[in-house]
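_Per-residue structure_
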Amino acid sequence: MTRALNKMPTPEGIGAGQTATCRLPLGYTYNRLLIRMADGVGDIVEAAWTTNIGEVRVMVDGDAKIQIDAGDLVDLNNYYGHVHDDGILPIFLTRHWMRTILGEDQTGYDTAGGMSSFTLEIDLKSGITIGQLNVFAEVSDPKDSLTGAVKGFGAHYRLQKYTHNQGVIGDAEISDIVRGPYSVLAIHAKSANVSTVEVLADGKKFYDTDLVVRNQYNRLGGRVPQAGFTHIDFIPDNRLSDAFPMAVQDFRLRMAFTATGSVPLYVESIQGAGMVAA
């Protein structure tokens, strides 16, 4: 099946200060979602998403598989080198910038089986004027290209939001990221006030950088580090097989903070059966 770009059903609950919900039809493999929005004057420009939309959530059977503030989603897309045309905010499910066909397709959302509901929730800010709000999706054939079998919901991209409260200046150990049979692609802390970062698992150190090394390391892989963020990227060379396995007894981030405050942590991962071959 040729990939199709289709308009989804009109979201319900469109109104300032409300949550608009788009019920996505089951049966396809979803590769990316596109939020199409305009205010009373024209299309929403890149810098204005944060003043029009709060949080966006991709929900499967009531469980938030992707949860991120719209302004942070803009920054995350920019980190991977994607610019935004006015009026469009994309949510990438498949990672089309990965270097293998398996990598490109593996993290999409197969909805032909294994789920009963698939929705996109959009928290609209109070006091805004909404000229247009629609959702488009790139979809493809849910059948396996080799076996012809219909694929049910399995391996998929997930973006989880955690919050770390840093009460003092200095080192912090963050150990509340859930462990289990999945793999982490990257962790993005919304704070520019971080100098050194270490990643430790089961008593071993796997990552140890300062800001200069960290940003240069990420740029070598074509990333665009964002102001106001600390990026811990396990796959800057775009190999999904390099993702960090979380089937460990202990996992912690050791981060040196130069200021206090509440810090959102966005964890990108691959979860579900048949994730990544070693």
